[in-house]
């Protein structure tokens, strides 16, 4: 297959943007890449690491001649980033993004670029690190990228975007944006919210010191600290832009937690045992589907 | 230093018991080991893997001649396991355990063995796996073992138990049992409860399928599934035996979660951003203290 695009412009050169640039360089070497980040130090570091072939001095300049533009900024900054690109965009360029919420981002992009083709997307991949040093070429290998085109979108354009993601190692799924937001609310947003919460709870206790929390974190707590170390700006924007679905999933979680709390209070061991037995199966399925390692403790020890 | 004990008997040959046996074999080869598990298949597998030098046919037989007995059974089974050992125990044997809650276990052991020296302990180490195939010799390397002796305990005996744990790679801390139970409620028990809850919530949704939950788990959810795959019997017992501290920590967590929920509902980005920024530091400290890997995604991808 020929390359799906000639030139890809990446706006925002952090973990996701940098990884896309490196992945294209590695797996789709026929595709040219340019990039821009509004942070000057990030641009400099991006050039040093060669995240893209050309680091431009403005968004407008970066997107000139590109047939695909991928916005890799926090959800709340998408509209503004799109407007910064507008003056330089080719009429036939496809605009996409990597935002973790899709209804709000699609709306912001459509409003910012009413005369362009916007096809939102979300690669479900990442690490707890951020910034221009965080990206790596293999980040998307075996991970899913969810594309959420408008219902009347040109199928050929969606296929080109799919081909790019598959070209850098991802598996592609097409989904309705509202459904995406509910799925990710439970598989990503709620877990982050809970992890951020418990890490804060542990830190603020008076009777247990922070040093004790750190020393004895191998009992389970350390697992939560990884995602609670994720980029604060991005996660603020995720919760604000996917508010309804997150609050709904949180409501379900709270109901379930209350049920287990009641079982503990009443000394109802049977309810606890039944619940804990049923949750084991999901882990096995995730490992079998290649979405996590089979090694104990994630293989980290 | 000479070996702190001549013969260690391990009752319960699952993840913890098996790992202690293998670790003694590896790092303290001068110490003899015997073991017993009430499950016949586990005894057979323990013998095949050589988890201990001699697998006995009863607890009584296993502890004969041992100067240290370590009970490695779920918290709720400690009292009964201790009573099974009683007829075979030497008068000078020290009885210890690895239970995740200490006030209730200490009480159960003292009641079962009123005429013996009981020094409870809890190595803060483990994996999501259980059973006789789960153990490995290096499990305790660099991890903490908390020993919770009675206030009037003979210091020389506590020192011998400490030496054993240090001999197999652990770092030792002496702690009041009630304080242990509060510390572990936040660093281990609450994280497990929350992980078990959210995995159940995700599984029970109607509008998001289990297959979607699994496919898109790399967005954060998969981190929670690891500890939610832990042994159900043990965790039922942990929550029942450390009920008060767990419910108290859960109350704090719920208050903090409600605060973040309110911030999301009100669109209060500043509160979210501030909270998410402060939680980053704890992760860094855990990595610096050698309690987790510095690699992104725990190094698993």
Account of the 3D structure:
Chains A, B: This is Prephenate/arogenate dehydrogenase family protein. Chains A, B: InterPro entries: 6-PGluconate_DH-like_C_sf, NAD(P)-bd_dom_sf, PDH_C, PDH_N, Preph/Arog_dehydrog, Prephen_DH. Chains A, B: Residues 6-294 form the Prephenate/arogenate dehydrogenase domain. Two copies of one chain form a homodimer. The first copy, chain A, is of the alpha/beta class and 301 residues long. The first copy, chain A, has two domains: 7-176, Rossmann fold; 179-292, 6-phosphogluconate dehydrogenase C-terminal fold, CATH 1.10.3660. Chain A contains 13 helices and nine strands. The first copy, chain A, has helices at 15-27, 40-49, 59-63, 78-85, 103-112, 155-167, 177-204, 210-215, 221-227, 232-241, 243-266, 269-278, 280-288; strands spanning 7-11, 32-36, 54-55, 68-71, 94-97, 117-118, 121-123, 144-147, 171-174. Chain A has a six-stranded parallel β-sheet with strand order 3-2-1-4-5-6, with helices on both faces. A three-stranded mixed β-sheet of chain A has the order 7-8-9, with helices on one face. The longest helix of chain A is centred in the middle third of the chain and has 28 residues, at 177-204. The radius of gyration of chain A is 21 Å and the shape is globular. The interface between A and B is large, with 109 and 109 residues.
């Amino acid at each position: 297959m020929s390359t799906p695009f000639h030139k890809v412009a990446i706006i925002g050169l952090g973990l996701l943007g940098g990884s896309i640039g490196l992945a294209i360089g590695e797996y789709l070497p026929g595709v040219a890449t340019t990039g821009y980040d509004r942070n000057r130090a990030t641009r400099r570091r991006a050039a040093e690491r060669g995240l893209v072939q050309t680091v431009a001095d403005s968004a407008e300049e970066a997107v000139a001649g590109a047939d695909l533009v991928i916005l890799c900024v926090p959800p709340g900054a998408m509209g503004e980033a799109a407007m910064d690109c507008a003056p330089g965009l080719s009429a036939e360029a496809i605009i996409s993004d990597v935002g973790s919420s899709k209804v709000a981002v699609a709306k912001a992009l459509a409003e910012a670029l009413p005369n362009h083709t916007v096809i939102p997307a979300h690669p479900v991949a990442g690490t707890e690190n951020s910034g221009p040093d965080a990206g790596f070429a293999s980040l998307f290998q075996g991970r899913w990228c969810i594309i959420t085109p408008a219902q009347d979108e040109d199928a050929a354009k969606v296929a080109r975007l799919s081909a790019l993601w598959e070209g850098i190692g991802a598996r592609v799924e097409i989904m309705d944006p509202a459904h995406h937001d509910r799925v990710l609310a439970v598989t990503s947003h709620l877990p982050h919210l809970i992890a951020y919460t418990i890490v804060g709870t542990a830190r603020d206790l008076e009777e247990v010191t922070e040093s004790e929390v750190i020393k004895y974190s191998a009992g389970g707590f350390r697992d939560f600290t990884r995602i609670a170390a994720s980029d604060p700006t991005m996660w603020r924007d995720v919760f604000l832009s996917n508010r309804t679905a997150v609050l709904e999933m949180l409501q379900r979680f709270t109901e379930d937690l209350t049920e287990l709390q009641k079982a503990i209070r009443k000394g109802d061991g049977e309810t606890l045992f039944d619940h804990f037995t049923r949750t084991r199966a999901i882990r096995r399925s995730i490992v079998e589907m290649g979405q996590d390692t089979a090694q104990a403790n994630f293989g980290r020890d």
